[in-house]
Specification:
This protein is mostly helical. The protein has 3 helices and no strands. The chain has one domain.
Length: 98
Amino acid sequence: MEYLELISVPAIATIVYWIMNLIKYAVKDNEIFKRLIPLLSALLGAVLGIIAFYAVPSIIPAPNVCIAILIGGASGLTATGTNQIIKQLSKGGEDGKK
């Protein structure tokens, strides 16, 4: 495995993370949108996986487009998990516990 192939997952996750934060800022307090965030992150990641597969094939370790979609979707869900980790760690002392 080449080192360049290792960058696809964190790159897609970072892009999805920031795009979803921009969308959340624009939409504000829409409950329907909040419920769809993981699905939208996975779909956006899958689209970015397809783009990476065709635009820069050396960056994504996928032999075909189906695997690129799975890698992209998983990377998008990684962005959602990262967001929740940051959110939970920053919550800290709100409920009286540290």
